[in-house]
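Hi team,

Below is the intake form for ABC transporter, solute-binding protein from Lachnoanaerobaculum saburreum F0468. Please confirm the fields before the structure is written into the shared record.

FORM ID: S-0412
PROTEIN: ABC transporter, solute-binding protein
ORGANISM: Lachnoanaerobaculum saburreum F0468
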Amino acid sequence: MKKTLKRFVAIAVSATMLFGMAGCAAKSQEKDSKDTSDGKVKLTFWSWLPTNDQSDEMIKEFEKENPNIEIEYTRTEQDDFFEKLQVAMASGTGPDLFGMTTGPMMEQYSKFSMDMGSAADQYWSGWKDKINTNAVSQSKSKSGTLVGMPMLIAGMTTLMYNKTLMDECGIEKVPTNYAELKDAADKAKAKGYVCVAAGASDDWINTDWFVQTSNEFEKGAVYEAEKGDRKWTDKCFVDTMNAWKKMFDDGIFEDGALGISTYPDARDQYFFARKSVFFMTGSWHLGPTSTSNTEIVGTEIGNKKDVIGMEPFPSVSDSGERLGTSGVDLMVCINKDCKNAEAAMKFIEYLSDGWGQQYWVNYLQGSPVSNEIKYKGTIDGELQQQSIDNVNKYVADAAGSRKLSNSEVEKAIHVAMQNVAAGADPNKELETVQQIYDSSK
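The structure came back. Fields below:
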């Protein structure tokens, strides 16, 4: 934990030292990134989405539609993405376009971003009628500026499952409550499998789970605490922390989960490798429920032709009620130093309301932000339609937003969750969260 905090501090200090160089570095970059030798406009784009499986086809199609624009895409896993972006933006060497999440990261990077609303008004006629208004609202900063264009809507938390392995282990149904989850873990372990593969080293999935699950203990309490209307030490949050700890104690997760990332480790080394029966993720990962999904080609579950499905994560509260959270899963921002805003908006329109959006929706990467696009992909998985319907309903009935707006509190919750899982007292850890909240006001 100390190592994680030291790394964050080091990055923050490095970024601060680089701010002084930002102006001149940005100026030197602007000329170089404007045009290629053949007269094309070149745009650099950094994000964690599209995935490597998606990007070649998506970019190829865009460049076919827009032969005068070239996209140079660099993908980084989400857990490492913001560290890389922070240093690059502070030094003035950031990309023309970059992926972003709503919440604290959006607030932090809004100062580097072009006003998306103004750019869209100038270069994309009628965009306000085409993009989901709730998604647009979530993509605005506290000042009301549209920081980036939303791309996908997603919900937390879901459980991807391998029905073939469930049958082998004698697990009769996908768990919906904690007793059933514990029973599934015992049966999976008896057959030599991990129950749930979880990337508990990731701050984003840990805090997403905390926000989502705390709503099951007391709906809406987490949003009241975020506003200062109640304490982070309240019973519902202690109960949430205890439920988190219990999953480690009861062997629900893999050994060493605190040191494992969701992507690619938990996914590739456990679920895709056929070593776990379940995988903790979100609604954006419905793709593998299709037998023709390219993501599972060449993996053990793909080679074995296992039947894959997805359901809401089991309730860990005494009530047994499953309540999800939802929000913009990805937005794309334009660097305020970008000198090709019109070309950048063409790419953003393509991703949010054009062929790129349709590709993502067909890929089951998330729910559409476009009001004009619906799923048109193939239904070839045994559990695919059922999974799509159940997960989409879970997301539609969400109790609230996935993300908190206070980045310091989110970081504190993540640290507290890791410490509690390692044996620390939940009450004391939540006292620290409250102290950090108080000092951040």
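SUMMARY LINE: The CA atoms of residues 16 and 134 lie 34 Å apart.

Thanks, M.
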